Every structure is written in structure tokens, then in C-alpha cells.
Amino acid sequence: xxxxxxxxxxxxxxxxxxxxxxxxxxxxxxxxxxxxxxxxxxxxxxxxxxxxxxxxxxxxxxxxxxxxxxxxxxxxxxxxxxxxxxxxxxxxxxxxxxxxxxxxxxxxxxxxxxxxxxxxxxxxxxxxxxxxxxxxxxxxxxxxxxxxxxxxxxxxxxxxxxxxxxxxxxxxxxxxxxxxxxxxxxxxxxxxxxxxxxxxxxxxxxxxxxxxxxxxxxxxxxxxxxxxxxxxxxxxxxxxxxxxxxxxxxxxxxxxxxxxxxxxxxxxxxxxxxxxxxxxxxxxxx
Length: 286
Hints:
Layout: H1 3-21, H2 25-31, H3 35-46, E1 50-53, E2 60-61, E3 77-78, H4 81-90, E4 94-97, H5 101-105, E5 118-120, E6 132-135, H6 137-149, E7 153-158, H7 160-165, E8 175-180, H8 195-198, E9 201-203, E10 207-211, H9 221-225, E11 231-234, E12 237-240, H10 250-254, E13 260-264, H11 269-277
Parallel strand pairs: 1-9
Antiparallel strand pairs: 1-7, 2-3, 4-5, 4-6, 5-8, 7-8, 10-13, 11-12
């Protein structure tokens, strides 16, 4: 059997395993809290990972933008998607998944299944074509726009698990851009995972959210919608655990009283985002 055929069969086995086990991911995640098993899973599936959450489609006013990241007509506004756009513009190789494996596995009814991950870097040339297609930079940017319009949150970085099940290896040459919904994201299992694994998903530096206690009515909408369980109710008001919060800002969008505010430090967001993400994968390799 040729190596390509073998890898193709393994990829489809991984896909079936992910879909079959998706509904049990929370129980499986709790098993990683057993020390020996947790360390083994970490080495096998998450070794060297670093993944960053970008705030959900919010405009943020900045006094200066220190990098050459394209921005809309207003010079004082940078969108979270522009961080992803930065890497798409510079990557020599682009791959789009035909379907989101998480939403497909969870039979999502609220968000489009066809808006799958974007993969960047030389390793995409090895991804099984049954999972999606190689695309031009312009097609990748158009896909990103559709994800933004659908209200999806971007998670970007290096994820060993993706390099395994897609066959896009080595992991150092594969950048993952997930486009996540709040209901079906694989990373909803973060609270159940061993801390050593869950800590690999990070909030970008300079990003934080606060609650205006005077406006908060204690409705609990933010608590129900936080996929990392970073929000709790205390004395009838929402409180954000800054150590747990990943800065996705879904709560700020969902709050009916507009009591939650996303803060991004002036001048730091775009610069630090690229500085943190760029070393993870060289997307300019031929």
C-alpha cells in the first residue's frame, strides 16, 4: 500500500473517531485530570501547542496601529479578524475545510456547517483533499469574511491535534484558524481538561473584560454563554474570573444591558498578537 493511501485511510479513521466521540468529549476531558493519563494525552495530542482566542467581531478604538495590518476606512479602528487577515496575506499556502467538524459532529442548528477551519503554512500540502481544498489567498480572505458575518469567533495558533487528524504535518508548519460557534466548539471542554492542557489556549495580551455593576441586572445571560465558565453570579451581579477568561467577548455581545465592556490596551493589541502568533508557524515557507 502506498504511503499516501495509508495516510488517507488514517485521516478518515480519525475523522470518524472524532465524530463518534464528540458527544463524549466532556467525560473524556475529565480523564486528563488523572496525572499519568493527563501527561500522556498532553504529549500525544497537545505537545508544543499555543492557541490564541481573538475577541468576537468587535471594533476597538486605538490611538495608533504599529504594524502594517490592513484596516477599514477609519484609521483608529482595527478588527480582530485583521489579525487573521495578516497571516492569510503572508501565507504561501491556504487550505479551507469543506465543513466544520465540530458543528457537523454536534448537528449544530444555529451556525453554518460549511464554514470550516482555515489552515495556513506548508503542511497544508499534505492535508487529505477529502477534507477540503487548497485555495488562493483571495478565496481564504472571502471565507474569513463569511465567518465574520456569521458571528463566529477566531482561534489561531499551533495545534498538534489538527496536524495529526488532518495529516498536515509537521505541526510546526501548520497554522490553524478555527472559526468557532458558542454551542459546538471543541474547546468548550476547557473547564474539564487538565490545567496543563487547558492553559495552552490563551487570551491575547492587553485584552480584558469588565462588568459595570451599576448596569448589570443579574439576568445570567453571560454566565450561560461563557464556554470556559469564567463568569459567576455574586450578590446578584456578574463577576468575571480574569484568570479563566479567554477574552472572546461573546458575553459583551450577549449582555442585554450592555453591562460588559471589552478593553484592549492602546497600541498593544495588533503588535502583541502578531508577535505572539508569528513564531508558532512560518507561513512563508515554499
